[in-house]
Amino acid sequence: MNQMVNHTRDGVDALVASVTVATREPERLAYLGVGELIAWSQVFRWRKVRNVVTPFLHPLLAATILRTNREPVLLAGMGGGLVGNLAKLKHPDTTPVLGMFGIAANHAAYSAALVTHGARPSPVRVGLRAAAWASGIGLAVWKKKQLIAPTIVAGVFVAATSVLADDPALQDGSTPAKGLGHAGNLLFLSEGIALLRETVLTGDSLGHRILDAKMTVAGVIGHMLMVDGLTRR
């Protein structure tokens, strides 16, 4: 229980540290503002607003990388994330290959950086994510076959990011580093919600829109914590 409480406290500290950066770095303030605007646009279905501002998310995170360690693999990953976001602006089943490679590239970059910093998988962490990944493939097979390949390929890399980021060995350093596990889990959750919305939770009620907003918030916070955990160690 104490370990869980401490882990939660570390996550809160990392989140506060990442948000506080906005008082010093304008690109972080812009990133948070864009993320919030996207979330509200999903609640109220401001599609034009969402389409205009979404492409700015990953470039604004790339600005953080350029300001800190300028790690090439992470910058390449931001390019992949941008492609993935652009694909999601359309129906995922109309651009499955584009979205698949964008998300996969983004998370492959995260995984590579995590391994470079010493992250290693464990059987328990792999087993938990593998079970969720297999469930996602089952949903795609059952409800939307166009998403089978993206779920298999992109899902592997998203799960790998979550597995590696949750390695406790990475979380003994700076406050941002302590948020890596939470970052990986939030990104895994965000992509999981996206799959649910395309398969079984396909309505457009207020509840569904709020779920979309929560998906966005999870992704925005997850990417921010991941980048800070890898670049501000």
TrEMBL record:
One of its GO terms (cellular component) is membrane. It is a multi-pass membrane protein. Its main location: membrane. It comes from the Bacteria. InterPro entries: TMEM86B-like. Keywords: Membrane, Transmembrane, Transmembrane helix. Signal peptide: none annotated. It is found in: Membrane. Pfam families: YhhN. Belongs to the TMEM86 family. This is Lysoplasmalogenase. It comes from Corynebacterium marinum.
